[in-house]
Amino acid sequence: MGHQDLGVELKRIFPPERVLTSELERRMYSYDSSFMARFHSFVPDAVVLPRSTQEVSALMKLASQRRIPVIPRGAGSGETCGCLAVRGGIVVDLSAWDAIEEVDVANMQVFARPGVVHYKLNEHLAGFGLFFPPDPGSTRMCTVGGMVANNSSGLRAVKYGTTEQYVLGLEVVLPDGQVIQTGGSNNCRALKNVSGLNLTKLFVGSEGVLGIITRIRLRVWPRPKARGMAMAVFSELEQAPAAVLDVYQSGILPSGIEILDTSAIQAINMYKPEINLPSAEAILIFEVDGNPAGVAWEGQQIAEIVGRRAVSVEWATDPARMADLWRGRSVVAVAAARLRPDGSRIFAGEDISVPLSRVTEALRRIKELSRKHDVAVVNYGHIGDGNIHTAPVINLDSSAEVQRANALVDDIHRLAIAMGGSTTGEHGVGAVRNQYTMDEHGEAALVMKQLKETLDPLNIMNPGKLLPPEGGKDRA
After folding, report:
1. What's the CATH code of the domain at 85?
2. Strand partners, 222
3. What pTM did the predictor assign?
4. Using alpha carbons only, what angle is made at residue 131 by residues 253 and 430, rounded to the nearest 5 degrees?
């Protein structure tokens, strides 16, 4: 079916202004932040912008009848090609369907449509003294629907965990157009519910391969009254993870613990010299939150405990000083490209997760791989839960460097699996990591495929993502 014919069919479901079929409009949906997207042209056949569950249901019935792939998309901030039409089809742009329908303060939950931006949700909840704790770095652009689909987490996962811990129920449109409610009946407001199989957990993190999430019921928490932050500088990398363990064993659970290694410190100082981070093998940033007295006590304890291993430690509760301490971490993703004048930071191999006990080893091994493939890298991330973000920096115009970068990324992913970790801690699998699904999950991956085939026998929901590819390798 041609673009125009498909457009005619879609305009029987959606108003004409919410059906995009021109070449320019479709190309605007052909990329995300991933390295892979730079070298492919994943242009969808059409794009639709739904505003109701009924529209999404009618779309899925049409797609099922015509066997057309359907790809849900939020803000497009992902790094895995997860929202791209790698096999053509219809992209469903949910980003403008952004209503916060209700904040149920008495029952500590909020009802929202998938396009709500994370930052705006928390800005709205602040008026009720509440917040939704997962805290991705892309808070000002990523959507809550995308966070649910990828089970996102972020900077404060150490204390608050991942998105799945807050999803109480979902409205989902299945591939055949059927609409289901998970987590209880349509009027369910219960915080605890162990009735039936947990279908909510099945859809959280499913990356759009099982259905389209159209409404979300989230648990929310009281907003902490106080925050404090500590920055610790280490002359030896090994001392940083050891200091994190010391803090845990003292009975303190910070809300976030971030690490910058030598490469990250160098990149930040090149990008923003005024930040002037001290030269070191590692810098740790701790954040604690809670009531003011508790924050003050925990901060003093962290400073004392970490100070036994660090060259220096600074503790702050003044908002301006905390912002200063946080500036380096906040710019590192952008600063990475400054490692070389002709360099670009690529998003690939950027999200491995390893056991806490092996973080130092992983950082050392990644540096060895960097030298092996002659590709510069910057390392930073959420050391409190073993989630390392590696940023390769290359000249994109050099085919030889691109080839070496791909080899480096493959080695990093295989290193994570060999170390008892994962190829992704929070960014997802998409089309860039599904070749490792069998290695990472073994026979369980085949059960995942059976679940997919049961709910989506025509394989029209976001095909080519998450699950093991046919023939062992599928780079779309």
Report:
1. 3.30.43.10
2. 130
3. 0.94
4. 80
